[in-house]
């Protein structure tokens, strides 16, 4: 990626984030403090890595990638979780998808350690779920209509010990 492309991505992300004013009260995003850290999932088909950092009282940043068994990158993305006003947004910028532009998902529901983000206008996924199983394990899930069928893809992960 060139510097110009990097700047354009940054500008797109900042535009999405600035559409709502961030308040001084960040009660909702505190619910995600458990997410900070290095998460990994392994299967016979791939290896998933997701890393989250807390940037400030209203913003977390992260990145994720999936590797094939022979260590080729299948997918990579940058993520921002932020609270704007009374809303939480998960902004995903997946490489080689959506014309390399960020897509925002809004927290639409949460209960019992399950957090649901949705964007019904996106092609796939339209829903992203983070399910905190325990302090050191989570199940991330993406779902939506894909080629006319409901598709659900799960990513079980455990937190790496620091």
Furnish the topology, listing elements before pairings:
Blueprint: H1 3-18, E1 37-42, E2 47-56, E3 59-67, E4 73-84, E5 87-94, E6 103-111, E7 114-118, E8 127-134, E9 137-146, E10 149-159
Antiparallel strand pairs: 1-2, 1-10, 2-3, 3-4, 4-5, 5-6, 6-7, 7-8, 8-9, 9-10
InterPro entries: DUF6265 (IPR046232)
Region (Disordered): 1-22
Domain DUF6265: 33-143
The total of helices stands at 1
Described by the principal axes of the CA atoms, the overall outline is globular
Gross CATH architecture: Beta Barrel
Mean pLDDT: 89
Query: What are the segments in which pLDDT stays under 50 over at least 5 consecutive residues?
Result: 20-24
- Run of helices and strands: HEEEEEEEEEE
Total number of strands: 10
Helix content: under 10%
The CATH topology is given as Lipocalin
Largest sheet: 10 strands, antiparallel, barrel
Distance between the termini: 31 Å
Would you identify the CATH H-level superfamily?
A: Calycin beta-barrel core domain
The CATH class name reads Mainly Beta
Task: Using the CA coordinates, give the radius of gyration.
Answer: 16 Å
Beta fraction of the residues? over 45%
* Structural class computed from helices and strand pairing: mainly beta
Strand order of the largest sheet: 1-2-3-4-5-6-7-8-9-10
Q: What is the domain total for the residues?
A: 1
